[in-house]
Amino acid sequence: MDFALNDDQLAVEGALDKLAERFATSPVDFHGFALVSQELDNELEESQYFEIAAIPEMGPLSAALAVERLARLPYTAEIALSMLVRPHLDLELPRPIAVIENGRPGRYVASAKTLIVIDGDSVGIAHPTPDDVEALPDSLFAYPMGRLTGSPEVTPLPAEQAEAVRNWMRVACAAEMAGLLQAAVDATVEHISVRKQFGRPIGTFQALRHRIAECAVLTGGVRWLALKAAWSGDAGDAALAALHAQDSATRVIYDVHQMSGAMGMTLEMDLHLWTYRMKALISELGGRSGQAQAVAQHCFGASAA
Amino acid sequence: MDFAWTSEQESFRASVRQFIQDNLPDNWEHIAHGPASKEQSAFAKQFCGALAEAGLLVPHWPERWGGRDADPWIAFILAEEMWMAGEPRGGQYMNVNWIGPTLMLFGSEAQQERYIPPMARGETIWCQGFSEPESGSDLASLRTRAERVGDVYRINGQKIWTSYAGDADTCFLLARTSQGKGGISIFLLPMTTPGITVRDIPSIIGEGDIHEVFFDDVEVPESARLGEEGQAWEIVGKALSLERVGIPRFALASKTLADAVKLLQSRGSFGPGVAEQAAKAHAACEAARLYSYSIIDQRAKGIIAGAEASVGRFATVICERLVSEFVVEHVPEAISGAHPLLLAHHQRGIVAGIASGAAEIQLNLIATQFLELPREPR
Q1: Which residues form the signal peptide (chain B) (predicted)?
Q2: Which residue of B has its CA nearest to A287?
Q3: Which residue of A has its CA nearest to B310?
Q4: In whole angstroms, what separates CA B359 from the centre of its chain?
Q5: pLDDT, averaged across chain B
Q6: Which of A18, A66, A132, B236 is in Cβ range 3.0-4.6 Å of A150 for a Cys bridge?
Q7: B279 to chain A: which residues are within 8 Å by CB?
Q8: Inter-chain residue contact A243 with B367, CB threshold 8 Å
Q9: Residue among B244, B99, B240, B66 at smallest CA distance from B169
Q10: Do residues B186 and B235 lie in contact, with contact meaning Cβ atoms separated by under 8 Å?
């Protein structure tokens, strides 16, 4: 085992760090939820970042590292599905890609060129026209949310590919969540380091120190599980990573908002950009109980039902 | 980044598993009950002797001390397999993990010659004289005194909650040689020295695990001091960095969870609600496993993990708790003795957040050193 980045991964990380500099600060006049950057999307497309999972010396692990890194930015774009799910389908799928799960609204649905349509046990692919979709600009989720209003033709995927979609969606969810968790913890650490009450930074009070430290432990665990799952491609690893991601996020979101107080309630602090992205990811693929059933199936050798 | 085992590591793991299968007696699960029982300690000497003969007790030690300079991965794979089997090395795991290596770093030649070979042969049990009635997490406040009288030190005081003291041959003792945090020294103290009294304290962990140790005018020569006077803090810091991720508790927790799940599945009691709890515990075990591996990877590259070791330790505390609670809720008969290995895990797991530095102290270290938060006022 080797937990350090290899030269190729270091090169990707260095390039992404450089790219990220331009998207690292939210505009001072932005007081909304979905801070999307088409420029970021274009840069990633032009530099072929959406192809790295398919490059042998890079692979899905490098893609997961990229997803985690980019998820820490206040700006977002449709990244995780294109980087981690699309390469595992032997199909030409134009992006952006979005998921419609059991008819619910989804991220990037209104701009998607490809829809992954999950309906119960079946998974299919659709290519919607603008008339098939509608944006939901009032959503609190910090992604551009949309819903399906029409009935585009859905081509069902064979069972094996449907399973691959679920597995890699879990990896994508965990990798993105790892970055979101890290950004939320970083923002909270900064806040409690400078916010003073009773004459001292509130981060010197043990009640908060322990709480944020536990958040950091959970965050790092999600990252390792996501990277391991991306490396192995194993269905059990993917389910464990997604479960730990959704479970940890559920707790960390509450804690970081509690520690950030009223400041975290305002749209002046970026915290909501990460926590309300996490809240969107928490419900994916059946939420925690859905991932737990996948763990039971793949790790405990039986269906939970 | 690569999560694969090498073929050498895989074949080593297989050889350790085979050794365990060949050397654990049929009634092992009953011996394993109580990690420091007389029966387990006696078996551990026999088992560790056999391990030593097979070259599996201290493979990561230098050749000079009976090892083969194997890298830290080998030591950790060995530890994982031992813990999954219920830790048949008993208290001797401490010798292997940190007491031996600490003596190699800081011991005099005479101390090394006297104490390391018996450890490498699996013949000796040590105890750790750290905590006192008034001094646990705040170790710098300890009161046991070692007073220089002529050419000896005279030791007076009391240690408490000392594991393995009832059977220990030697104590790794912290005592005060002068005032202040810098006034603490370490002594390697044979437990047969006159003036030492050991009293067993009954505990949840089982027979023979926790003790009080009293020191009344115990005299030791200067040659029993490890390192210089006042060097304890530096030495203990090094020893604890070896110990914090020295115990792969997640491996036993993970095995325990798998055993409990199999039991529940066999009786048709593994419904979706139970499975969700089991899955969360399993994910926590795997997170702790990867954290621990990441620290072993650093160690293999010659990097001493700082606050990352505390992060990994706390991840292990989380998984121990989830597994322990799962067994209590869903296999409660284990706590009444129906499944000795599940009970043994419960008794070992209960100390995960307490032994070798309380979990809350780890959280403080994470806050200060890992997250770089401003320090608490003192």
Answers
A1: none
A2: B276
A3: A217
A4: 15
A5: 93
A6: A132
A7: 239-240, 243, 291-293, 295-296, 299-300
A8: no
A9: B99
A10: yes
Residues of chain B found within 8 Å of residue A4, distances taken between Cβ atoms:
1, 297, 301
Q: B216-226, pLDDT tens digit by residue?
A: 999 999 999 99
Considering B92, B124, B156, which residue would you say is the last residue of a domain? B124
Least confident interval from A124-128, B284-288, B328-332, B347-351:
B347-351
Distance CA B173, CA B185 (A): 8
From the list B3, B73, B278, the residue facing A300 with the nearest CB is B278
By C-alpha distance, the chain A residue nearest B368 is A209
> What are A78's two structure tokens?
């449709």
Domain closes at, from B195, B229, B263:
B229
For residue B293, the domain's CATH number is 1.20.140.10
CB atoms within 10 A of CB A21: 10
Tell me which residues of chain B, numbers 252 to 281, contact chain A at a CB-CB cutoff of 8 Å.
258, 261, 265, 270-272, 274-276, 278-280
| Spatial distance between the Cα atoms of A8 and B23, rounded to a whole number of angstroms | 46
> Do B118 and B197 belong together in one domain?
no
Q: How confident is the model at residue B207 (pLDDT cuts 50, 70, 90)?
A: confident
Q: Is residue B270 a part of any domain in this protein? A: yes
Residue B42 lies in domain: 7-124
Q: Between A4, A201, A217, which is nearest B1 by CB?
A: A4
pLDDT digits (tens, 9 = 90+) for B287-338: 999 999 999 999 999 888 788 889 999 999 999 999 999 999 999 999 998 9
Q: Which of A212, A217, A232 to mutate to test the interface with B (most CBs of B within 10 A)?
A: A217
Instruction: Report all structural domains of chain A as residue ranges with CATH numbers, in order of start.
Output: 160-299 (1.20.140.10)
CB-based burial, B265-274: b 16+ in 10 Å, e otherwise = beeeebeeeb
Contact B287, A226 (CB under 8 A): no
The pTM score is 0.95
| A201–B290 C-beta distance less than 8 A | no
Tell me if chain A has a CB within 8 Å of the CB of B302: no
B211 and B195 share one domain = yes
Comparing CB atoms, the residue among B2, B315, B374 nearest residue A203 is B374
- Nearest by CB: A1 against B286, B297, B315: B297
Per residue in B110-164, pLDDT tens? 999 999 999 999 999 999 999 999 888 888 899 999 999 999 999 999 999 999 9
CATH code, domain with B88: 1.10.540.10
Out of A1, A192, A289, the one facing B272 most closely (by C-beta) is A289
H helices of B35-98, in order, are 38-53, 72-84, 93-94
Q: Are residues B211 and B271 in the same domain?
A: no
ipTM of the complex model:
0.95
Least confident interval from A6-10, B100-104, B138-142:
B138-142
